[in-house]
Amino acid sequence: MHYQVDSWGYYMPRMSMGSDPMERVAKLASESAVVIFSLSSCCMCHAVKRLFCGLGVNPTVYELDQDPRGKDLEAALMRLLGNSQAVPVVFIGGKLIGAMDRVMASHINGTLVPLLKEAGALWL
Amino acid sequence: MNVPTGLIQQEGSAFGFGELEEAIVLQGLNIRNDEAKAPLFGTGRPAATLEMFPSWPMRFKQTPRGSSKSGGGSTDSGSAVNTISSKTENQLEPESPISTKNTAPLDHQQEMMASDVSRTGQEKRRGSTSEKQLDAKTLRRLAQNREAARKSRLRKKAYVQQLESSRIKLSQIEQDLQRSRSQGFFLGGCAGALGNISSGAAIFDMAYSRWLEDDQRHMSELRTGLNAHLSDSDLRIIVDTYISHYDEIFRLKVVAAKADAFHLITGMWTTPAERCFLWMGGFRPSELIKMLISQLDPLTEQQVMGIYSLQHSSQQAEEALTQGLEQLQQSLTDTIAGGPIIDGMQQMAVAIGKLANLEGFVRQADNLRQQTLHQLSRILTVRQAARCFLMIGEYYGRLRALSSLWTSRPRESMMSDEHSCQTTTDLQMVQPSQNHFSEF
Lengths: 124, 440
Prior knowledge:
Chain A: Residues 34-97 form the Glutaredoxin domain. The complex is a heterodimer of chains A (124) and B (440). With 124 residues, chain A is of the alpha+beta class. Chain A has 5 helices and 6 strands. In chain A, β3, α2 (43-55) and β4 form a beta-alpha-beta unit. Chain A is globular and about 40 Å long. Chain B is mainly alpha-helical and 440 residues long. Chains A and B meet through α2 and α4 of A and α16 and α18 of B.
């Protein structure tokens, strides 16, 4: 297999040019316990990253503005979420949690931490 | 020489520098003249004498040269000139050689300086120049100084009067505004016309004041429900209605954030005391829980854990949002500060784009507030929840009352009597439990 170092310093199998962005999203999301799609310039993305770091979680962050095919991924995420804001969006254990508001609601109603533990991102 | 005395009596107000200088110079000149009769400085031509006093009517005749000589203060002198009647001009018209006029000398001068207030046609020029060592420039300067000093005194007087009346008007307006605000009544629609509040903000303020009135009703329903010892299911209906009432203000705030995030974030829609505790356009959820914890006894152990966990999660979420907002501020600063001036518009466009993110933060903060209240009602029993919401309402009601008391407290000013009256009425307003109970 041919491996390529991407901009995330992350070894990934090389994909064919015609791969569906949605498929790619799903694939990336399933590869880590906590996956955050972000833009390096987005401040709300910064907030969600800080939230997880504050919880003691080490999320895998994909900065779409640093990805050559980031635009496609953004479009796919927009479709997935059904709104004009693609990022930030959080996956835990391969499952879509949602944008910032859903993440916050989940934390407040106490469902976020169990999910994190279940996915193996937290051990306490 | 009685010149100085005459000058002091001249205009009644503060002694101007112009006159003082003039008095000193002329005093010196008069002494010199007594000693020796020197020829007229400069020229022996009659025309030259006329030009020496651009503040005098002769400027009409010698406009080009006069204006070039008078320089800075000439406009003042010029306007004085314009008020001089034609009589003066007539006086000047049949001007004979200076020698005859020179007899009008010092006496005229002293008289004029003693009585000069407005420059009527009675003023004669100081034709004594040919007899004295009067420096043309000096005399012109003195005249201009005097004129300028007089004008500036008048301007200052007018300005101070204007300031005084504005100050009174302003404090009256402030009083009215605070009184209106304390009664939960905002400027609303008419404020939009004033231009100092956006229409989105004005609309929200109106909606918020209506919400506060509704809140009063809901509060009394809760109170009656608790006192009447209703069944849990009946009380549940009241509590759920109250939660929907909260949901409504958060919906209104979503719209308001889109229209004018600054209005929400600066807290101009709340009272001063509330504004003190403002976090991202509203109350800080963890602070609210802290306030409630001591009052919510008795709680089961599970409930206590739930409440503390809620407080903890809330704090974490608040911290994350705060850091996100800080990064936004930093990014904004980086965009605006420094950078090439040439690219100014581009810079501004980028900055505006970043500012738009403010709406998102206010929305997330409101979302956090809403979720916290919902979670509270899940942790608590119906009766506890009813008491809890009543407590929240009473807390903010007292904050609002505090604000209105604060703004109407007596101050060391002319308005002190009015203020103390207002404080009394405000105290009366605080007593009945209905008023001022609000939350958001």
